[in-house]
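Bit of a strange request maybe. I'm writing a small parser for structure token strings and I need a real example to test against, not something I typed by hand. Could someone generate the tokens for this chain?
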Amino acid sequence: MKKYLINWVTFVALAIWFSSPAQAQDSASLSPAIGHSKAPLFSTKEKIIFNLNTNFTDLWKHRAIANREVPEDIRDFEAPGRLAWTDSTGKHDLPVKVQLRGNTSQSASECPFPKMSLSFEKDQASGERVSKGTLFDGLSSIGIGTHCGGKPGASLRFRRVWGGLSPHREALIYKVQEYLSIPGFQVSPTSFRYIDTSTGRGPVEPQPSGFAVNQPMPGFFLEDIKTFVKQADGKEIRAADAPFPDSDKPYIFTSITDAPKDARAAGSTIEPIDAKSIIRIMFFQALVGNRDWIIRISPDDLSASRGLWNMKVVEANGKWIVFPYDYDLAGWVKAENFFSGLPGLADGDFYKPADISQVVAELKQKRPGIEALVDELAREDRDGADRIKEHIKAFYNALDRRFH
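Reply from user aminoacidic:
Good idea to test on real output. This should exercise your parser:
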């Protein structure tokens, strides 16, 4: 089988909620709601500013170095903090543990204000999570997508967008992913006010930014893999050739076509991965201009640096659920017009013409819905929405030329 490899490039709030995501049009597809928490956070339409207080000075001293095995004292570091907000049910103030997350984005030159994750501990008296009865009910942890850098502009190496524009755009991509019936993480766009407990003031981002975060900044809450796995009643599967494996995770994925064989070697029985689900992902990544991902389709894809990159695989109900995540380097987020073409899909051993035609028909039928979601972005970010519309137009023009 010929290889198909996506080369990864070393290169205030969006308040939209699509309440009825479309279902895939073939019986083999998984519901996009699989793995989704029912936490009220992901359905509320309230515009809320969340206050996160923690020792940012100490937290930022524990940034991981990209593409290296993370030392235990960095990997396990948690800063105590408080997450407070006011909603229609009243005032809330929860103790949380704050950690940094991300790979290259933890570099101060890439994201002076890096991504984070929050964990909710159990109340010692009741034994219940402190999140019980709040917007975060049922969640033990959650991710935060931050503004990356407050100073207008972009990082030098990967051109990550600063100035508070990226969260609006990245959250939109997750919404489009759900609309296209591709499983994945839920998002809740919002705004954050940050206080550094070591100074009592807004944190000051390190150079090359130097921005003092003294006003609410756009961001989004992101469902994490722990929640997805729990809701799907499954387990996460990692690539067998992952560079830094964790001992408690089953590292058995080698390729899409060998998935049943990989599972059997680990004592599981699964159905073959449906080609249409992979084709959807490939067209979706082209649509949003994301090249920062890898998935090995067949054992012949030996030139891939690894089997999975910015992709998750979860085993549940006799299936391997494959889905993408992490779009901060996507064209839509950068608002750059660099549509680089459609995926090849030339290998008839895996990509059947009938499967491709069905996915293309879905994409064409859903174009108005995609553009409607982008129109919601225009309320916050007119320039970004306009550039995304240009990217969408280029994508569909290419689709029409190839698939009449």
